[in-house]
Design goal:
It contains eleven helices and 16 strands. The chain is of the alpha/beta class. The strands form three sheets. The chain has a seven-stranded mixed beta barrel. A seven-stranded parallel β-sheet has the order 8-9-10-11-12-13-14, with helices on one face. A hairpin with a 4-residue loop joins β6 and β7. α1 runs parallel beside α2 and α7 packs parallel to α10. It is globular.
Length: 380
């Protein structure tokens, strides 16, 4: 598991007052006009003009804004983006160039209270996250393959959310942008139209549906009227030619009707671009409601196979996320994805020596701590 935060100890008094966002580089010969927004990774360069210098050693006395990195941050490399605070000696990793699963949290505010929410909503004003995201987009390398925006509910920002997407179009036109949203804001056709006018060349929005039954969906998200507004939002987006992914988090309430959910999508939302069937991440509200929500993935493997088969039969692109290789049937393997971000991915000791470990998506670290399938076994 890779750490996304750690110590950055100031090596000189001047560094104590330094704080800010920097893109990292190992190029000490970077043109001087560009250096201010870069942090130099170097053991011996003075780093004149750079925003900061980061070292693994105790320092050489060079430079006037040096930081010594703690061991958990030795993975930092050229192109990564960090935020360093000299006053607290803390560093946060905001973007990792080596990862294809970079996500940016835009807000913890939300108009849902989903039973299995891994990021429980808060009511406090956290608009600083949006400001940080706008600065970050300007520093991310333009050859980044994919970038995600999550919440909370990002569309609560309204037009400012659309401004962020426009910024991505300007600075990251070759980057696939994936937004997670409950979709309800798009029930307003005018807002959906504004979203469509951004015209980013590779933009998709992922919207969850937890049941074909409105009452069950509304119960899972703890909000009356949510189902109808979400479906209307999806219809508006597709009417405007926008790419939409439907996400189904697999827990007791969705698994009970999984084949019916697949049938509902096939009959009513055949035009969506992708369907993701996703295992639980045991964080936040999921942890609090685990006994109510948990169902062993091995116990629903046949329902999962049936849902994948049905969606495929209708020509719908479908993927299975966040499952272990040994608890699913062979017939879904063409839809199976290794989807858990590397910074929160682990394996059990019993997985050592498994012949199919390289094919397996592994576990969220929270799964290992709280609940895993009773049928995990290594292929020998």
């Amino acid at each position: 598991m890779i750490s996304l935060s750690g110590k950055a100890v100031p090596l000189c008094p001047e560094a104590l007052s330094h704080s800010g966002m920097l893109r990292l580089t190992r190029n000490s010969d970077l043109p001087r006009p560009l250096r201010k927004k870069y942090g130099l990774l170097s053991e011996d360069a003075a780093g004149d003009g750079f925003g900061a210098v980061f070292r693994k050693s105790h320092g050489t006395g060079l430079g006037n804004s040096g930081f010594r990195l703690s061991a958990e941050l030795y993975h930092l490399d050229d192109g990564d983006v960090v935020y360093v605070d000299g006053a607290t000696s803390r560093l946060r990793v905001l973007y990792r160039r080596a990862s294809n699963q970079n996500s940016i949290l835009l807000t913890e505010r939300c108009n849902h209270l989903c039973l299995m929410c891994s990021q429980p909503p808060k009511s406090a004003d956290d608009s600083w996250l949006m400001s940080e995201a706008k600065e970050l987009v300007r520093l991310i390398p333009d050859d980044t393959r994919e970038l995600g925006f999550t919440g909370g509910e990002p569309t609560l920002y309204g037009d400012e959310f659309l401004e962020l997407l426009s910024l991505c179009k300007s600075y990251l036109p070759r980057t696939a942008i994936h937004v997670l949203s409950n979709g309800r804001a798009f029930k307003d056709f005018e807002f959906a139209r504004k979203y469509s006018r951004v015209k980013h060349p590779d933009l998709m929005i992922g919207i969850p549906i937890y049941s074909d039954d409105p009452v069950t969906h509304n119960f899972v998200v703890q909000s009356d009227g949510a189902f109808s507004e979400t479906i209307k939002g999806i219809l508006n987006l597709k009417a405007l030619g926008q790419r939409v992914e439907i996400r189904v988090v697999l827990q007791r309430y969705s698994v009970e009707r999984l084949e019916k959910i697949a049938s509902f999508i096939a009959r009513n939302l055949l035009f969506v671009d992708h369907v993701a069937l996703m295992g639980l991440e045991i964080m936040g509200f999921t942890r609090a409601n685990l006994e109510e929500l948990w169902i062993d993935p091995y116990d629903y493997k046949d329902q999962l196979s049936a849902a994948v088969s049905l969606l495929r039969a209708y020509g719908i692109n479908v993927s299975v996320y966040n499952h272990q290789r040994c608890v699913v049937n062979e017939d879904i393997m063409s839809a199976y994805r290794k989807s858990i971000s590397d910074w929160k991915n682990e394996f059990l000791e019993s997985c050592e020596g498994c012949l199919k470990k390289d094919e397996c998506g592994g576990f969220f670290f929270s799964q290992i701590r709280y609940r895993t399938s009773d049928h995990i076994k290594a292929f020998r």
